[in-house]
Amino acid sequence: MKKLLKKTISGIVRAEYIEVKPNVRLHITDAGEGRPIVLLPGWPLSDEMYEYQYNDLIKNNFRVIGITLRGFGKSDKPYSAYN
Q: Does the keyword Hydrolase apply (predicted)?
């Protein structure tokens, strides 16, 4: 599932979900073009903690991918065990 999140000064930001196992989807923010930088937030936050870094990195010609871990932010919070 892909959707347009917002248009920024430096380009388009996409929000999408990646299914990592049945009924478990992680929320991904994908913005910009160029060499990729992956942002992984610390516990207990989501990739939204990097809202100010996205524009600066995109302006410097990076592709920025923010991944929200299972159980946080807009990612799924299933009650099944982790494995």
A: yes
Rounded to whole angstroms, the Cα distance separating 23 from 76 reads: 8
CA pair distance 41, 2, nearest whole angstrom? 21
Taking only the tens place, the pLDDT of each residue in 28-82 is: 999 999 999 999 887 788 888 888 888 899 999 999 999 888 777 777 677 776 6
The torsion angle over the Cα atoms of residues 18, 75, 71 and 81, rounded to 10 degrees, is -40
N- to C-terminal Cα separation, the chain: 25
Q: Using alpha carbons, select from 36, 8, 27 the residue that is nearest to residue 77.
A: 27
Cα angle: 70, vertex 75, 76; to 5 degrees? 75
pLDDT, mean of residues 9-33:
83
**Which tokens in the block code for residue 63?**
């592709």
Which tokens belong to 57?
Answer: 């990195």
